[in-house]
Amino acid sequence: MAKVVEKAQQEKEALISGSEAIAVACKLADVDVITAYPIRPYDTVMQYVAKLVANGELDCEYIVAESEHSQFEIVKHASAAGARVFCGSSGVGWMYAFEALTVTPALRIPMVAMVGNRALDDPGAFGVEHNDALAVRDLGWQLVWVDNAQEALDTALIAYRVAEDRRVFLPCAIACDGAFLTHSQALTKIPPQEWVDAFLPPYNRGDLLLHPDNPITVAPQVNEDWLMELRKHNDEAMKRSKNAVIPEAYRDFERIFNRSYGNPFFEEYQTEDADIVLVGMGTLSMPVKVAIRQMRKEGKKVGFVRVRWFRPFPAEDLAETLGRFGAVGVIDRDYSFGSPHFSGVLATEVRAALYPAAKRPPVVGFICGLGGREVTVPDVRRVSEMVFKAAGGETQPFITWMGIRE
Amino acid sequence: MDAIETLPIQQLDAFKGVKKVPLEEYFTSGHRTCQGCESALVMKLMVKAAGPRTIVLGSTGCMYVANTTYYSTSWVVPWMHTQLGSSGSAGLGTAAALKALMRKGKMKEEPINVIAFCGDGGGADMGLSAISATLTHPQYNVLILLYDNESYANTDIQLSGMTPYGAHTTFSPPGKAKRLMHTRWKKNMAGMLAAGHPETKYVGTVCASYAVDMMNRVRKALMIGGPTFVHSLDPCPKGWDYDPMLSHELGELAVETGIWPLYEVENRVLKLYGRSKGIAEKRSKRKPVRDYLLRQGRFAHFTDDDIDYFQAKIDDMWEKWLIPGVIPFWKELEKDQPPA
Fold first, then answer.
1. Domain ranges, residue A168
2. Dihedral (C-alpha) B288, B292, B295, B296: value to the nearest 10 degrees?
3. Which residue of A24, A49, B284, B317 shows the fewest CB atoms closer than 10 Å?
4. What is the reported pTM?
C-alpha cells in the first residue's frame, strides 16, 4: 500500500499549539480548499492557515465565508468536485452549520474538520464541553478526540487517510478541547513531506467525481424506495473504518513515522496492574494522569483509559479492556439531559458497550469540567475514591456532578 | 494590488435568432414538473445556453424534487443537489475546487461553467446571505440563477419574500377577519444585488417568455467571468392558479404591465431591454396591472381598491424611482399607504 520511505529524513521540532499543529497538517496534506469563519476557540487554526497561505507555504483556495453554514457547504461542494478540504468550528458555530454537517456524511464527503470543543452558549461560555462535537455522533461523522499538539498533527494526517479511503468515504472531525489544547503549546515533531506523501495518497473521488467527464446526478430524490439501503451503505462504511481502515492507517503511520499510538482507538495509562480504571476523553488526561501518579505513590492502583475514537466506537475492545478492572469511573465533559440515569454521553456508551460483555464491572458516572471549568487533581482523587468503593461492593450513584455548588 | 486570477472562460457568443440555437438538450426527459411549468423551461434554456461542459448545482425546491427522481434524472450534465439556502455556497465551493485543482495541476485545465440555481425561497429568503457572499468573490466563475415562481411552490405554495402583495397562498389565505393576509411588498432582489455588489460584472433579469433573450443573458453572465446573478420570473400554474396554457402570456404580461422590468447591469452599465426599454423611454405604454392580476386565481379576492393600490405601486416604480424599475430610492419623499 504505502511506499517505503527514506528514513534518513529528519523530523523538525517546533513549539506549537494544538491549533497550529492542525494547520501544519493541512499544509503537509496539501489541502486544496479551506473555509474559515471566526468563533473561539477553534478559529486559531484558521489564523495559522491564513499565515501559511499569506507566506506562500500552503497553496489552497482560502475562503472566509459569511457563516458556518456556508463554510461547511462550500467545502462539501469543493470535495464533491475533487478537492481535498478542511474546515472547522466550535460550540454554537458548529451547530449553526448543522444542516451542512447532516448532509456531508450522507453524500460520502470525506472532509476533515476540527472542532475546538466549546460550551453551547447561552449563557455565554467559551470553555470546553464536548456536546458540540457529540451532536453529530449519529450522523456518519467519524469523531476522534486528541489530547496534545503532536497527536493533533498526527491524527489530522490519519484522519485524511481514513476518511478518503474508498472503503470509508465518510467525514472525520478531530475534537480538540478549547483552550486546553487549541491554545496550549507543546514541543511537536513536524514530519518531512516525503513521509507524509508516502502515508497519504492523493484524494481520488473516482466515479463519484462531479465533472463534465463524469455526468452523474448527485443526491436525487430516493424517498422510501432506496433511503434505507443508502443508510445501510453508510453503516457498512463505518464498520469498515473500525475493523480495517483505522487499524491499517495506524500500522502504516507507525511504520513510516516511527511513532506508535498502541491501540488506535484508546490509550491505556498504568492499567496493567490497576484495581480500578477511569475513562475519559481529551485533555482531562492531564490532571487524571497526575492524580494517578500521586495515588500510586500511596499504593492506590488506578489506571486510565483515554478514548480517542468515539465514532466508530470500539465497543468490543473497550468492553474487554474494562472487564479487567474492579470498577469503572467514566468522566464526562458533557451532559445529556434526560438520558438513561441522567448520565453523560460517554458513560451511557460505555454501559451499552459493557452490557453484552462476559465481565461487567460497575460503572460510576461523573460530570466534570463543564464550560471549561478546570478538572483538578483533587477532583480526580475524589472520583477515584468513589470508584474504589464501587469496586468494594458499595453501590455508588449512577451519576455525580463533581464540584457542583449547591 | 495583485491581479485577480480566474480560470479560462468558455466562448459563448449570443444566439442570433432562434434558428441559430442548437438542438441538443442537456435538460431532457425524466422530470415530473407540472403542465405549463415555466421553471422547467428555464432549466432547459439555461443549460442549453451553457452547453455540455457545465456543472449544475440545484438547491432544494421544485426544480430539485420534480427533476431528479432516482433513476430518472433529467440532467445530461453533472448535477448535484445543495441545501435550500446553499446555492451561493455550492457554486462557490465547486468553482473554488476547479480553480485549486487546475492551478495545482491535479485536474486538466479547461473552462467549465458552474451554475447554481435556487428558487425564490431558497435564494431571496434563506440563501440571500450566501449568494451575497459569493458575489463578492471576483476570482471564481459562477452563475447564480434564481427561478422565481413567487412562492415555496414545492411544499404546497407557501408565501416567500418574493410573493407579490396580497397574493393568496396556503400561508396567506383570504379570510373573514383578514381579507389580505400577505401585505409585504416583493423584494427587489436583482436591484439589491446589483447595487450591493459592485465587483459583480453581470446582474440581469429575464423571463423565459422571451427565450432567446433569456438564453443570451445566461451566456453573457457565464462569459463575463467572476460571480454573476440572473433573476428569472417564472409563471407557475399551480401556485398562481391559472390555465397552464397561459404561462407564456402571463410572463409577457408581467413585463408589459411593468411589474417585471427586464434589465441587465453589465460591467456596471445599466441597460433596460425588450419591452421594458420602451416603457422606460416612454415609447410604449404600460398595460394595466388588472390585466395581469385578474388572470390569476391567487388575486381573485382583490377588490378594485387593491388593484388600484397595486397599480399605484407599479406607477411609482416607473415614475418616482430614482432609476425607474431598478432602484427604489425616490426622487422625493412621499406618503405610501395601503388601502384600509
1. 12-257
2. -130
3. B284
4. 0.96
